[in-house]
Structure formats: C-alpha cells, structure tokens
Amino acid sequence: MVMGKNVTIGRRSVVVGGIGAAVSVGFFGAAAPRVRARQDGPFRVVFIQGVIGDNFYITMDCGARAKAAALGTIELETQGPEQFDQSLQTPILNAVVQTQPDAIMMAPNDAQGMIAPIQAAIDAGVPVLCVDTTINSDIQLADVSTDNVEGGRLAARGLAEAIGGSGKVFVVNVNPGISTTDQREQGFAEEIALFPDIEYLGQEYSNNDANRAAAIVSARLQSDPDLAGIFGTNLFSAQGAAAGVREQGQTGTVKVVGFDAGPAQVQDLQSEVVDLLIAQHPGDIGEIAVQLLHEFLTTGEPIEPKTYVTGATIVTRENIEDPEAARYLYLADCANYVLSDVTPADAAGGTPEAGATPSA
Ligand code: T6T
User: Fold this and answer.
1) Is the Cβ atom of 50 under 6 angstroms away from ligand 1?
2) Residue 348: beta bridge partners?
3) Which residue in 21, 127, 192, 335 has the fewest CB atoms around it within 10 Å?
4) Residue pLDDT, tens place only, 314-347
5) Which of 260, 281, 309, 310 to mutate to test the pocket of ligand 1 (most atoms within 8 A of CB)?
6) Which CATH number is correct for 29-145+281-308, 3.90.76.10, 1.10.260.40, 3.40.50.720, 3.40.50.2300?
7) What angle do CA 59, 162, 234 make, to 5 degrees?
8) What's the helix, strand, coil split of the chain in %, to 5?
C-alpha cells in the first residue's frame, strides 16, 4: 500500500542511466578550471536557482545557507531567473562568472542548452556543481539530486492505487529538456505501463505556470470526461492540475498525485483535491552541495564520486502530521530551517535498485 505510508526513496539509490553517468573526465582534465591557491577561505559561492520564488529552491537555499554558516568557510550568494528558462538563466550565469566567484552551484534550466554556458564558466576558471537538474555532460564538478526516475515510478504506483487500478491517466509536465521532470515522466510512463487496465493518455507542458496547468487540466476534463487521474511532475504543474480539478468540480473524483510539497500543495492535500505528494529533500541537496564545495575548495581535490542522490518522502493525509514526513514540507523562508545531519557519504554511490518499497 502506498497510501498512508511514510516511504522514503533510499539516499543511496542512483538514477539509472541518468545524472553524471558515462564519461569520467576528471576535474583536472584538459578543460579543468584552475584551483585557487587560497585554500582556507572564505570562499565566495554563488547559488543560481532554477527559478526564483519556488519553495523547492527556497528550501534548498536554506539548507545551503545553514551548512555554510556551520562550516564558516563559505559566503553564499543566491540568484535566479524569474522564469524557468535558459534564455533568462544564461545571462545571469555569465554575469556571475564575470565576478569570479570561487565556485557556482546551480540548477541548469535545460540539460542540453546549458552545456555551453557552463563550459564557458569553467573555461573562465569558475567550477560549477549541479544541484537538482543537470546537463547532458560530465563537465560539472558533481551532481546532487533526487532519484527522479524512481520518483516518477512512485507517482505511478500511487496514482494507480488511488484510481483503483483502472482508468485513464494523464501527466502535466513542465517543459521538454529539463532533466528532472523528463526523468519523472519517464519513470511514470514505464511504471504505469505495468498496469494493464490503465490507459496513459500522455503529457502536456505547463511551461512551469500553474495557471497554464489549470487550463490544460480543465480542457482535458472536457475532452476526456472519464479521466481518472493526473500526475503533476513539479510544484507548479501539480498546483495548477489541482486547481483545474477543483474548478471543474471534480475534487475527489479525479485523483491527483503531485511531485514536490510546497505550501499550496499541502493545502490541496488537506482539502482532498490531491491524494499524494512526493516531497523531495531540497534542504539536504543544499547542505550536501555546500559540504562538497567546502571540501573541494579547501583541498583542491576533485569530488569523488560525482553523483549524490538524496531522498524523497511520500506525504499523504495519513502521515502529514508525522514529524518524519512533516520535516520535508517545503519552506517559505529559512526562519525555521533545522540543519540535518546528512553528509555526502549518505548520498554517494549505492545501487540503482535501492529505492522505496511502496508495497511494504
Ligand atoms: O520539482 C522542482 C525541481 O526538482 C524541478 O527541477 C523544477 O521544479 C521544481 O523546482 C518545483 O517547482
């Protein structure tokens, strides 16, 4: 049973065929940026978010700041585009590189399109570590992210259960080319295909806009009035999907599973528009990223291994009061952030099959 269980994707699981797999080009390889001589800090690190004003990245920033404060060696600055859009993120990255920080941690807006701008940063002597999203390359120092394929599988199993194992389902995704949400849809599609009585109608893209997601769902409920369930692959897509269901008077009839756990999503869960949320652990991503950069900048040694996979927790109405689930709900600001005890070693390595066991 998925529902009501506090299931966590193992921190040690690795995205199959995903993040940071393939070619192993060391940090000190041909295109490697130079290592600064100043190895005791303070180091200036800039965090470039995927988009500003997103509770996921806000919570990640809280983790990064809390860890930086605890270590005392890193001065963190945070920036981000107003939309999840590589044409807005690229000039921000370029401007940050001009200021020659010691390192950048960033969530690239496009897996392909952000390779060249990140390569330019590295060529200018600024190493880049990817958090959350990644690029189709191995030029970055390391990747710290959720196992998004497994997250998509969890969503499929949760939605399948919510709709009683049969009916039409549909996905509201963000934009093609974003590593995380592409992987979630991939995991969802693979897993939902295992249910013979469920018909997957495919996906539509919200452009990370909750209003657009709501409009997509409203239109879909007109064209497919027998739709049984929807998976929203990120905060804004899921929030908008829930709004569409509510606006069409289908609360409780059409089941919704959402990735992420922003404040509005939690309200949707409590008001029974949504049945299940998959909360990532963005604070842990931020903490691990800063810890890795601290080690890298103080030692000058390349980061090994290069892939770090953080957990995800299924949140339902049944477990939302449980502190083990509640601690992963996303924040609006850092006032109540509690530093976790997560370390890079907790998230490094592991086996692809290590993941949640929702049938437990
Ligand atoms: O789901 C997260 C993040 O993991 C994804 O890459 C983009 O969307 C979010 O920031 C939520 O809005």
Assistant:
1) yes
2) 308
3) 335
4) 999 999 999 999 999 999 999 999 999 899 999 9
5) 260
6) 3.40.50.2300
7) 25
8) 35, 20, 45
Token digits for 283?
């604070």
Across 186-201, b (16+ Cβ under 10 Å) vs e yields bbbbebbeebeebbbe
Question: Where do the domains of the chain lie?
Answer: 29-145+281-308, 148-280
Q: Closest ligand 1 atom to the C-alpha of 237?
A: 12
Task: Residue 286: name the closest of 121, 147, 132, 101 by CA.
Answer: 132
- Which 3 state secondary structure label does DSSP give 105? strand
d(CA 269, CA 253): 14
Number of Cβ within 10 Å of residue 99's Cβ equals 10
Atom of ligand 1 nearest to the CA of 148: 4
CA distances from 201 to 107, 171, 256 (A): 30, 8, 15
